[in-house]
Design goal:
YgaP-like_TM, transmembrane
Length: 66
Amino acid sequence: MGRNVGSLDRTLRIGVGTAMVLMWIFGPLGWWGLIGFLPLVTGITGVCPIYPLIGVNTAGAAPDRS
């Protein structure tokens, strides 16, 4: 599975994920903050397993490998 998350999408995912995890660590979000690991990991890796299921690719066109 290739990268399917574009740069703006990755930046937003990393920011939101980091904020949620920090709110889990410091208390105000509680255990719901653990959900922040999902956007954080998908932002860091650049791969979202849900995107192929719904036909989305924010990374742009795949490079020609011929």
